[in-house]
Each structure stands twice: as C-alpha cells, then as structure tokens.
Design a protein that fits this description.
424 residues; single chain; 17 helices; mainly alpha
C-alpha cells in the first residue's frame, strides 16, 4: 500500500486531530514558521467560502421538493412541518440566549480576524423587505443569504406545484445535492492541512489560551441540548401528547445513542422507526410519515448550534448585537437550520447565511468556521441527540392529536388523516 492509500485509509477525524496537534506544537515551539504556511489556511478558508452559496440554495430547494411525496402531505405532513418549525425556532432562541449569557466567544483568537465595527446596520423593516430579491442572480453573486433562502424555498414550492413536469427539476436538485456532498468531502480532505496552518498561527499569536473559548463553546452545546430537551421536548411529550416522559425516554435510548455515535439524523431513522412502532405503539402510517420528514427538517440540535455559534462569532469579532440584529439572526437561523443538508458539518456552512444578514464579511465567517471545525465532530455528536429527540417527540405529538376510532370500530377503518393512533 502506497503512502497516499495509507493516508486516506486513516479516518478523517484522526487526520484532523493530527493536524491540530502538529499545529499547536508548531505554534508553541517554532512560531516563526507559522507565517510561512499561512497561505494553506487562507486557501482552506477560500474553499469554505466557495461552497456556502450553492450549499444554502441547493439544500433548501431540494429539501422543499422532498416534501412533494403525497404520503408526506396532508394533515399529518402539515402538522409535522409546523411542529418542527416551532421547535426549531425555540432551539435557535436557546442557543442565542446561552451565547449571550455565557459569552463563549469573548476574546477568541480567530487566526487573523480582528475586532471591528459593522457600521450602521439595516433596520428590521429593510431586512424583511430585502428578503424578496429584485434580481436573484445579483443576490447569488453578492451572497445575500436571506434573499437566497427565500428564493430557494419559493423555487422548491414551484417545483412541487409543477407536478409531473417539475419532476426532472426535482431530480436535478437531488443530484446537485449529491454532487455538493462529494465536493464537501473533497474540501474536508484539505481540513487537516488547513487546521494545521490556522491553529499554528493562532497559537503563535495567542498561546494555548486559544482553546479556552472552545471549552466554553462545548459547555454551551451540552447545556443547549439539555435545555432544548427539558424546556421544549418534555412539555410537548407530557402536556400535548399526554405521554409518560419516563416511558418515552426509556424507549428512546437506542435512537439517542445511535444519534450520538453516528452524528447523523438519517442513520438514526431505522432505529427510530422500530422504536416508534414497537415500543411507543405508534401506527406505522404515522411513524413512516413523520420520522422521514424529521430526518430531513427536524434539526433542533443544528438550530441551537447555529444560534449559539452566531452569537459566538459576533463576540469573537468584538461586535455587540442590538435587538434588531438578534431578531434577524433568529429568523435567518431558523430558516437556515430548517434547510440544513445531511452533509458533514453542514451547520458550519449555514452559519454564513445568518452572519451575512448582520454585516459580517464572508472571510470573517470562514475564519470562524476554520477555528471551530477541528472540534466540530464531538460537538456534532452532541447536538445530533437533540435532533433525534425532536424527531421522536414530534412523532408522538402528531400521533396523539389523531382521533382514535370509538370502541368496536374495525381496525381497517382509519382516522380522518388516514391513520390511527394507539395509546401506549
């Protein structure tokens, strides 16, 4: 086996950790060498910036078209989407609140990013009006993320309304999503070298204190996941679905463990389907409708992280957000998280969609991504637990809202929305 094959045979996370360790040692013991490899970090940052706009547009548009499956529409699908929208907004709020309370980004060294004033921000009215682009090509070129998100959602709905004639375009969007997935994989292969260069420069400039902020950020992620489950999911389970919280989480252990170990909502789906039907006594018609939708759009963990990381980024850049900025970040963060694609570290790429609306330059956002990315695997595992919990929570709530047929009704007769829910 040649050197190249041996290199690629090593799991990516191990190579990233190796680059991180070498970067720290280089920054500590040979700081004069850091400027000589700084261009590698710059190239890595540019590669990240290159992918942001296509990922945002394609992932959101293809996510909307994925709901065109008739089995996912109707009353069950409608309630599911609304519930996920509500839990997503709550998750972004919790992430932002933790960021403002703990201030994990204050004093963070982003490897060359300097604190700066953003100037006079647009008013909330101007931001909301600006959601509708006058020229979508200009919006794409300039990276106007709110306009791109709006057009992507509108474009996806247009594909759905086109019916059979829209199927080829839906296939193109799905194909583009797969292509972008592989492009991200290519960029991720550069990560060990980009991390080495960025961390070496950061440590050379600031010493090991650079890791303090990552520790606070990780603590906020854990607290955010716990808060989302305790303050949002538990009340829905107990008060809306009228289920035993203890029985719910006893059944949900397997999906939550799989979510943590794989950091993938999609990988959790088969286990969640089995648990929903066998242990939570949810009708297959409900489980097979709600859970696949949740695997696509149920991203509570990602939403919390996007909200937290947005505040972290502003603190690292020395920017104090006002109420208008926080409102715009909440709106954009909810929309961005809702359409996050199932690709590695997609939430980091979606960060640009939030920060650009409050005046943060793309190169500054890319520096934040480069700063956090070496540690994102463990953070991703943690926040995926909240997404898996949200998926099962919404499933039991939707099942609990179905009208159970009166006693003696034949099991073959379904409820108004085409399904029957059974009490546990």
């Amino acid at each position: 086996m040649g050197p190249a094959r041996r290199w690629f045979a090593i799991p990516l996370w191990r190579r990233v950790v190796g680059g991180l360790v070498i970067g720290v040692l280089l920054g500590l013991f040979w700081p004069a060498a850091a400027p000589g490899i700084a261009f590698i970090g710059e190239l890595f940052v540019r590669l990240i910036r290159m992918l942001v706009v296509p990922i945002v547009f394609v992932s959101i548009a293809s996510g909307v078209t994925a709901l065109a499956d008739p089995r996912r529409l109707g009353s069950v699908g409608g309630r599911t989407v609304l519930l996920f929208a509500a839990t997503t907004a709550c998750a972004v709020s919790i992430g932002m609140a933790l960021g403002l309370l703990v201030e994990p980004g204050t004093g963070a060294a982003l490897g060359g990013a300097t604190p700066h004033a953003l100037g006079e921000a647009k008013s909330l009215h101007d931001q909301l009006v600006g959601i509708v682009p006058v020229n979508i090509v200009t919006a794409l070129v300039e990276g106007d993320m709110l306009a791109i998100i709006f057009f992507a959602m509108l474009f996806g709905f247009g594909v759905i309304l086109a019916g059979e004639e829209g199927r080829p375009m839906a296939a193109v969007l799905q194909s583009a999503g797969r292509v972008l997935f592989h492009l991200v994989r290519i960029v991720m292969e550069v990560t060990p070298f980009g991390v080495l260069a960025l961390i070496a420069q950061a440590v050379a400039d600031n010493g090991v204190a650079v890791f303090t902020n990552i520790g606070w950020l990780a603590l906020c992620v854990v607290l955010g996941v716990a808060a989302q489950i305790m303050l949002v999911h538990l009340p829905l389970i107990r008060l809306v679905a009228r289920r035993s919280v203890r029985r719910f989480f006893r059944a949900a252990v397997d999906p939550l463990v799989v979510a943590f170990s794989t950091a993938s909502s999609a990988a959790t789906l088969p286990v969640a389907l089995r648990v929903a039907q066998e242990q939570l006594a949810i009708e297959p018609a409900i489980a097979s409708t709600v859970l696949p939708i949740g695997a696509s759009i149920g991203k509570d963990g990602t939403a919390m992280y996007v909200g937290l990381l947005s505040v972290f980024s502003l603190q690292a850049l020395g920017v104090a957000p006002d109420r208008a900025m926080l409102a715009i970040m909440l709106l954009t963060g909810s929309l961005a998280a809702f359409g996050t694609a199932p690709i590695p570290s997609a939430s980091l790429f979606m960060l640009a969609a939030v920060l650009s609306t409050v005046g943060v330059a793309p190169e500054q956002t890319a520096l934040v991504v480069g700063f956090v990315l070496p540690f994102d695997r463990l953070l991703d595992m943690t926040r995926t637990v909240a997404s898996a919990s949200a998926n099962l929570t919404v499933t039991v709530v939707v099942a609990g809202q179905d009208k159970t047929p009166p006693a003696g009704t034949d099991d073959a007769i379904l409820a108004d929305d085409g399904s029957i829910s059974r009490a546990p």
